[in-house]
């Protein structure tokens, strides 16, 4: 991820009151970030959604044989090299 992309994402989190940024008086270059209470709540919900989708992926993968999964992996590997 590029530095401008990280900056844009961090700024969006700050604008939405999900993250706070502070600077120390003795060193104005260093920026410290703290997650807000709403940011923490959102992170918890985000983690829950990840667990749900991981379970769905696991259930889907179990429907394929080892050989079928090998073909899918080969395809995705080749495709990712093209993009």
UniProtKB/TrEMBL annotation:
Keywords: DNA-binding, Transcription, Transcription regulation. SUPFAM superfamilies: Winged helix' DNA-binding domain. Gene3D superfamilies: Winged helix-like DNA-binding domain superfamily/Winged helix DNA-binding domain. PANTHER family: HTH-TYPE TRANSCRIPTIONAL REGULATOR PCHR. This is HTH marR-type domain-containing protein. It comes from Paenibacillus helianthi.
């Amino acid at each position: 991820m590029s530095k401008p992309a990280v900056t844009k994402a961090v700024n969006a989190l700050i604008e939405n009151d999900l993250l706070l940024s502070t600077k120390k008086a003795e060193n104005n270059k260093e920026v410290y970030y703290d997650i807000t209470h709403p940011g923490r709540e959102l992170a918890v919900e985000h983690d829950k959604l990840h667990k749900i989708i991981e379970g769905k992926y696991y259930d889907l993968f179990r429907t394929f044989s080892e050989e079928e999964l090998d073909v899918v992996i080969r395809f995705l590997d080749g495709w990712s090299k093209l993009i």
